[in-house]
Amino acid sequence: MAHLITSDPGVFNARSYDYLVIGGGTAGLALASRLAQDEGIKVGVLEAGNYHQGNPLIDIPGHFGSLVGNDEFDWKFETVPQEGLGGRKLPWPRGKVLGGTSALNFLVWNRAAKEDYDAWEKLGNPGWNWESLLPFFKKSETLTLPSQSHQDKHHSSVDPVFHGTSGPVSTSFSPWYAATHSFWRDTLQILGIKKNPSALNGSNTGSWTTIQSVDPVTATRSYSVTAYLGHNPQRSAEIEQPNLVILTGAQAQRILIERSGQGTLRATGAEYLHKSGVFTIEAGLEVLVAAGTIQSPQLLELSGIGSHEVLTKAGVEVKYENESVGRNLQDHLMTEITYELEPGIQTPEDLAEDPASKEAAEKLYLEEKDGIYRSTPSSMAYVPLKDLITGRKLSDLYEQIAAAEIPGLLPTQKELLLENLKHGSVGHVEFILHHGNSSAFVGERGKRYATIHQIQQYPFSRGQIHIRSPHASDKPAIDPAYYTPARLPRPASSEAGSFTPDLDIITAGTIFAAKIPLQPPLNSIIARRVFPPEEGEGAPGSEEDWRRFIRDTTVTDWHPVGTCAMLPERDGGVVNPKLQVYGVAGLRVADASIIPLHISSHLQATVYAIAEKAAAIIREDRLGQGRD
Fold first, then answer.
1. Is 412 in a helix, a strand, or coil?
2. Which ranges of 166-324 does DSSP label H, i.e. alpha helix?
3. Is the pTM of this model over 0.85?
4. What is the 3-state secondary structure (H, E, C) of 186-221?
5. Lower CB density within 10 Å: C or N end of the chain?
6. Where are the alpha helices (DSSP H) in 37-147?
7. How far is CA 214 from CA 169, 196, 219, 229, in A?
8. CB atoms inside a 10 Å sphere around CB 148
9. Model pLDDT, residue 261
């Protein structure tokens, strides 16, 4: 596969393409490169961000999160004011760079429970289940197995049967862990949370050490650019026969859709914006949208596919009406509790405050590929709700949810979520222990902190993303509808009541998390809780106090999915199991937006698997139709 990266529309438009991929991010580059491996197939990619080869803030693992909020690298989306959060808006960073969010994320490499992927098939998507996705998880990955001494010291065991050995994305365990990590699993075990020796085999409950998307040879981030294009992608326009061409700095404005004499619609290309003007480019076979959960529905709506009301209000001609475009939005909500550590424990604050520590850490990383700059979030656990809420309280919650009307939640989705609650074999809340300060607490200079993050995995709230105007440069309105109340049936003698399932679940997780640092051996390095404080003003005492703290401080773990849902069209679907957009031939979506029901996992590995499977489906369709 010969590939070319260019920022010149003239170079890009001088070539013809069989497939046009919109979005050069996590899914887009994986999909494009796989399709371009077929002899004679030409693939073009439009990417709005720029190419930043060798940028240390991307490449060095320990710099994770440092580009969030950076105008050059981040779209800097934000939600509309959220009633459930007291009117607060939350930032929604997304990668505006070649490689997309895979260049900005926290390098976590994990998978959801088998039941999560099987649920996709139960929702009406034959062939989308754990067994069918596992080959594509493995195809995307090359895992470097940890040594026996590493396993013994850091609890880094895996079952190699479930991991890839020749895929593009390099994955590995860190050689360096903070002091907090060495106590994590033993402490949780005292609270009844078992150790999981192989958390990527379809059951991720329990505590474990996570894998990083890091190349252990170079000690650098392995993301969609380096993984699928290589460490030195060609940028010269002198390449004679590139079959994969990527145009950076080019934002798709709309998909070109033609109507045949019989009235059928077909995607034929795209119009895109570049600093040098407005251009169009055609696709001989298909247009493939991989712009992510926010911008994939935005682009469909800008192209006339969506709700009649939304499109008309925005001034866009309706070409195919589908009320579900932009709906079914689901996200992982997160709370944080921060603790002051005993003196002498190294954390990222050392690098910011102490030049000598920073210099020593840089030297260790450059010379030995070790130390804190190799460190990313690694102390993790997924815990079923039955381990957080017990007895009658859990059964009452189940019965309330079963009886309630939850806005936007499909009956089939509700049934599967209730099944998860009933059987209790999946992780409803994720816990991460991070050796550093939280996003909400301002620490004191000279002190060191650790933070426990609690993330709800199966939200009941359903939001939406819609365009506000006919221009791609105008950011869409993002309304996740966090903490949406559910309405209970009206009893004969009273008004209908309401409760908030998501708030109930995350409250249980947060109260549980507050117990973790009180247990040995972790309590040996914890000085005190500082956010929320242990005592005095702002210190939560009752469960209602915790709920107020949570509403005031909840943030997002930035895992939005579902806005171009893979479901039957009658049930709220935008794409079918072949990822084809309903009503428009030659148009597919392949990214996290197609996920119909959220999963207990960070999204990176799953999005790569979706892209790998999408490439196989598209190839099979092309060969089946004799278009070789």
1. helix
2. 179-190, 224-228, 292-302, 308-314
3. yes
4. HHHHHCCCCECCCCCCCCCCEEEECEECEECCCCEE
5. C
6. 56-59, 114-122, 130-139
7. 8, 22, 6, 16
8. 10
9. 80
CA 452, CA 104: separation in Å to the nearest integer? 21
- For the chain, list residues with pLDDT below 50: 237, 492-494
Residue 423 pLDDT: 84
3-state secondary structure of 9: helix
Catalytic residue among 52, 559, 598, 602: 559
State the first-to-last Cα distance of the chain, in angstroms, to the nearest integer.
17
| For the chain, counts of helices (H) and of strands (E) | 17, 31
Half-sphere exposure of 513 (CA within 13 A, CB side): 34
Residue 390: the pLDDT is 83
| Residue 97 and residue 103 in contact, taking contact as beta carbons nearer than 8 Å | yes
Quick: pLDDT tens for 479-522. 999 999 999 886 644 455 678 999 999 999 999 999 999 999 99
Secondary structure (3-state) at 44: strand
Where do runs of H (alpha helix) occur along 438-529?
501-515
pLDDT of residue 461: 97
How many residues would you count in the chain?
A: 628
Structure tokens belonging to residue 469: 């105007």
What would you report as the CA-atom Rg of the chain, rounded to the nearest whole angstrom? Answer: 24
Pair 520, 187: CB distance under 8 Å: yes
- State the residue for tokens 């915790």: 546
Q: Between β-strands 333-341 and 555-556, what pairing exists: parallel, antiparallel or unpaired?
A: antiparallel
Give me the DSSP letters along 349-362: HHHHH-HHHHHHHH
Residue 150 known to be catalytic: no
The region that residue 83 occupies, defined by phi over 0 for left and psi between -120 and 50 for alpha, beta otherwise, is alpha
Instruction: Please report the pLDDT score of residue 493 as a whole number.
Output: 46
Amino acid at 470: P
CA atoms within 13 A on the CB side of 521: 8
Under 8 Å between Cβ of 226 and 220: yes
Residue 45's nearest CA partner among 34, 29, 68 is 29
- What is the model's pLDDT at position 485? 94
Sheet of 244-248: strands edge to edge?
3-6, 244-248, 43-47, 19-22, 286-289, 587-589
From residue 94, give the alpha-carbon distance in Å to each of 48, 78, 91.
12, 10, 10
CA dihedral sign, ordered 45, 48, 53, 58: negative
- Note the pLDDT of residue 8: 97
- CB neighbourhood size of 204 (10 A): 27
